[in-house]
Amino acid sequence: MKKISLVLVIGFLGCSQISFAQESSNNKIFLSGNLHADSKVLFESSGMQTQNISFPSPDKKSPMIAGLLSLLLPGAGEFYTESYWKAAVFAAVEVSAIVVAVSYNKKGDTQTSTFEQYADGHWSIKRYAEWTINNVAFINSSVDAAQYSVINTDGSVNHAELNRLERDLGSGYSHALPQHGDQQYYELIGKYPQYSHGWDDANQSETDFHILSPNFLDYSKMRGKANDYYNLSDKAVIGLYVNHFLSGLDAVWSAFSFNKDIAVKFRVNQINAGTNLTFYPTVYLQYSF
């Protein structure tokens, strides 16, 4: 750190002329002939008093307070340290991130409702189970379909038996279908080909489950759009945390900068010249960097 001290003498503030008689009726003042000594004697005998003139400097800012303020509310610490432009920037970023996070999360929720309703209207567990049990030989010839009671006598699906069959088939049947309404249920039916023949536009006469129907593909795009909305919302939330952290660091730095940047001292020097007392205002300017 370097310090530069600059002394500026502004000029005459004023001049006081004090005249004294060398002898009065009651007191005698003896002068030596020395200008400096005689000036001091005359000034002291006059009964005048000097006053110290001070100019208060701005209060220092606490780096800890500044940092805590900005960690709680970005820009608050900068405002405290009088860095108003930076305070406005951090506050604007905070508001923008909140708006993005909330709005895109709502868009994700809306899109999720859209694709779930689409799935409920176009995908059926019964179609999927029937196609699977009818094509076991093509999926995995080592599995005997007769060993599984997937379809009940009333036409409903035995979910536990279906899951057992899925696990035993392997060969591309990598997942067991969750219960209807589960988040994973809606994800799997539009993500993995093994569920392609549960869609109402799938060709049930096909023996290859890797052939995807148009509804499967459309549904996958719907889910992808919802995920994109949620991802943007998540990134905005991360941006909020980053904004708090950066604002806190900057507020601490701003407080240190505020306290050390510049120090100004002002005082009045006096010069005695015989019976004349002259005041010279002097400015001491110190800059640290």
Topology record:
Blueprint: E1 3-9, E2 14-17, H1 35-46, H2 63-72, H3 76-80, H4 84-122, H5 125-134, H6 136-139, H7 159-169, H8 183-188, H9 214-260, E3 262-273, E4 276-288
Antiparallel strand pairs: 1-4, 2-4, 3-4
What does it look like?
Mean pLDDT is 81; it is low at 1-25. The protein is an alpha+beta fold. It is rod-shaped, with a radius of gyration of 44 Å. It has helices at 35-46, 63-72, 76-80, 84-122, 125-134, 136-139, 159-169, 183-188, 214-260, and strands at residues 3-9, 14-17, 262-273, 276-288. Helix 2 packs antiparallel against helix 9 and helix 4 (84-122) runs antiparallel to helix 9. The chain has a domain at 109-234.
Summary of the model, kept short:
It is built from 9 helices and 4 strands, in the order E-E-H-H-H-H-H-H-H-H-H-E-E. With 289 residues, the protein is of the alpha+beta class.
List keywords for this structure.
single chain, 289 residues, alpha+beta, 9 helices, 50% helix
What share of the residues does DSSP label as strand, in percent?
A: 5-15%
The number of helical runs is: 9
Radius of gyration: 44 Å
Query: What's the rounded overall pLDDT mean?
Result: 81
Shape: rod-shaped
> What kind of sheet is the major sheet?
4 strands, antiparallel
Q: Give the total of beta strands.
A: 4
The percentage helix is 40-55%
Task: Report the span from N to C terminus.
Answer: 6 Å
H-E order: EEHHHHHHHHHEE
> Structural class, please?
alpha+beta
The unreliable regions are 1-25
